[in-house]
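An example makes the point: we print one protein in full, the chain in one-letter code, the fold tokenised, without further comment:
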Amino acid sequence: MQLDAAFVAFRSGEIGSLRTDGKRWTKGDMLAAGARILQKRKEAERERRIEEVLASKPENFHILTHDSELPAFVERLRTECKRQMTEWAGKYDFLGVKSMTAGDFEGTGVDSYIDLSIGFSIWLPLLGEGYYLPYGHVDMRGVEGFEFLNDTFAFKIGDPQLTRSKVLGAIKPYL
């Protein structure tokens, strides 16, 4: 795969000579060049997908980044639950609840002892609204294993996000 990528890139003019000393290319030269080309393509594809997702974010999906937005969000959540209790009365009785929303925690992993939640997303079906509440993101640019992160899309120190305790306090009654 790496050899093929390097060969095609050379033939198309994407890359030139792999050696500055004028010697013949080795298999190692070709493999290294191919690996760089494949990584570059992978990063370009990832950026393209991120741009596509951001460009296609629906108007009814909201990303909250300031604690001052939480009261209005909680009011929308409360409105959703009240509407469900009226419009879907009895629908969830078999579960022992009066209303139901689709919520999901984003986290650093699945180990409940060491991993942390860093955000919460929720869909309010009757209102037709979605929300993402980021609160624990950290800047991982430059950290080993996260070389794929770039300045354009990665969370950076200073980027706005919510306060963890305020988010968890706001959503706790609805979990």
Q: What stands out?
A: The radius of gyration is 24 Å. The mean pLDDT is 89.
